[in-house]
Amino acid sequence: MLCLAAGSAAAQPASPSSPSDTQALRRELDAMRAEYEQRIRALEQRLQAAEAKAATQPPASVPTPAPASAVAAAPAAAPSTAGRSLLDISMILSGQYTSTQLDPSTYRIRGFPLPTDAEAGPGTRGFSLSETELTLGANIDPYFRGQATFAVTPENEIEVEEAYVQTTALGRGLTVKAGRFFSSIGYLNSQHRHTWDFADAPLAYQAMLGGQFGDDGLQLAWVAPTDRFLELRAEVGRGRSFPGSDTSRNGLGAAALSAHVGDDIGDSHSWRAGLSYLQAKATDQELAETDTAGNAITNTFTGRTKVWIADAVYRWAPNGNPKVRNFKLQGEYLQARRDGDLVVDSEGAASPGTYAAKQSGWYLQGVYQFMPRWRAGLRTERLSPGTPDFGVNAGLVDLGSGTPRRNTLMLEHNPSEFSRVRLQVAQDRARGNGGSDLQWWLQYQMSLGAHGAHGF
C-alpha cells in the first residue's frame, strides 16, 4: 500500500508544498507505519500460538529422516519452538560362518605380544553373530551435531564404539570433535567395520593397533580451501586402548597427527595419500606371551609406543561412474617402536627388565567390481617382528621363527546398496614356526534406517 500510495502521489502534477501540507503527510505516514507494526505483532502472536499448539500434539505422520550425509554436509537451520531435527537411526546387522584348520582360541601373531582382549585372529568357529552396530545421530543446534555408535559383540556385550559431538559452524574449514571416536590415523582406522572390503582387519592393524585404535579426547580437523584436497588433523586423548592402556593418570595418554592429500586425474581416476603419527603411553599393560617351553605367560609393559603410518588409495571408474565397473587399490605401511620396562611372567617368575622393539608391517589389496553388484578382491600382507631386546630377560620369551604373512581372496554380491553377502578364504601363516591355517568366512551385512555416505 505504501508503494501504491507513493506511486499515486508521484503521478500528480508537482506543486509547491506548504508547511501544513508537509506535517499532514508526515502524520499520515506515521499512522500507516503504526498500523503495519500492529498487524505484524498480531501475526507473530498467532504464529507463536500455532507453534506452541503443534509442539504439544503428536504429528499425524513421521517424515522419513534425511540421510546422515545430507545432514552433515550443511549446518542445521535455526531451531524453532516447534522442536529440533529428528534423530537419525541406523543399524547394521551382521553375521557369519567361520571355518578354520587351527583352533582360533590359541591364535597368536608371532613376535607381536597383545593384550588378551585385543581383536586378533579369525574369531569364533561355526555360526555366530558378527559385530552389530546401532548408530544414533542428529543436529543439536546450528553449532553442534552429535552421534553415538554402539556395537553388540558376538559375546553378547554392548560396547560404545563412538560417542561424540562435532562442531558445524566454525567456518574456515575447521571442525572440532570431542568424545570417543576412532582415530583418523591411516586410511582404514577411522572406518566402521561394515565399510571394510574384507571381513577382518589386516595383520598390521591387528599386531600394532590391536585391531583398531579408538580413544576418548579431542580432535581438530582443517580442510584447506584449495582445489586439491588437503586435510590436517590433530588429536589428544586418554590413550585408553592398545598400544596405550587405560589408567587413572592425569594429563594425556596419547596424541596423534595426520595429513592427507588427494585429487582427480581426468574423469575416471582419483587418488589419496597420507602420513600419520601416533604416540601412546602404557602403564602395567598385560600382554599374552609364551615362554621358551611353550607355556602361556603374561608379561607387563610400561613405556611408550610410537607408530608411523603411510597410506595410499587409488580408484578407477569409467567416466567417474562406478555403477557398472570400478577398481580400488589400497595399501598401508605401519612401523611401531616400543620402549620401556617389561616384567616377564608377572604372575610367576616376575622378572623385571628393559624392553625395546622396532617392528613393521604392510598390506596391499585390490577390489574389482567386474559387473553390477559383484566384486572380487585380493589382499596380501606381511609383518616384520624384528628382534626385540628383552635386556636381562633375553632367552625367557619364545621368539618363534618364520615371517608372519597372509593371503586372502574375497567374492562379494550386493543385491542392493543396503545388503551384502561375502565369501572369503585366507591362507594364514602369522603364527610362526611354520604353522599354516586355512580360514573361511561366509558373511552377511544388512543396513537398516538412515545411513550416511561412506568416505573416499
From TrEMBL:
Coiled coil, from the record: 26-53
InterPro entries registered for this protein in UniProt: Porin_dom_sf (IPR023614)
Keywords: Coiled coil
The UniProt record lists the keyword Coiled coil: yes
SUPFAM superfamilies xrefs: Porins
UniProt key word rRNA-binding: no
Ranges of biased composition (kind: Low complexity): 1-20
Gene3D superfamilies: Porin
Protein name: TonB-dependent receptor
